[in-house]
Write a structure and sequence with these properties.
three-stranded mixed beta sheet, five-stranded mixed beta sheet, about 30% strand, Rossmann fold, alpha/beta
Amino acid sequence: MMFLRNICFGLLCMLLLAGCATSPATRFYTLSAIKTEEATQNFVTPKYRIVIGQATIPDTVNRAAIVTRQGDNQVQVHENHRWTESLKTEIPRVIALNLSALLPDAQVAGYPQRLALADADFDVVLDVRAFDAMPGKAVALDVQWRIQNRTDEKRTLIQHARLTEEVDGDGMAAVAAAFSRVLATLSEEMAAVVRSETLKQSDS
């Protein structure tokens, strides 16, 4: 009887330990565009069209799990904190939404909807060199982007941006918000270049 009682007690302990050892819930994050109240609400017939191609992303961060940097030679992969979609498609999507808000006289499409604007005036290609996060500190974006003026095939502009943004708070939600702000800053730089190009077209 004592032996049976010990076995039952042991099984009960194992069940309790198994319940305590369950893995934490997976959380999902997304990048956000410029707030809608900042966008122009009035419909304007587009004067030109822009397509944002699929972004190239370093293999280090090109994964569903969020990757943070621990130092120059060490990163941490957070398997329980994941992006809702591939950064290759999410970054162009957010930039397209931002440019739609910043350039109300443009029609903008991001990958993979870019085929709908096959006759676009401007084609933008993004080469992301770094998309680094240091939780509680800052995020950093290093990107080279190329804008092709399709009305003048000889005119191709190559821009390079290195941007940082402080992480306002703890946790991965704060990291995603900081990345969104960095993309908003990049979008503003891109919008300024597009405006300059359209003015040159109108003057020519």
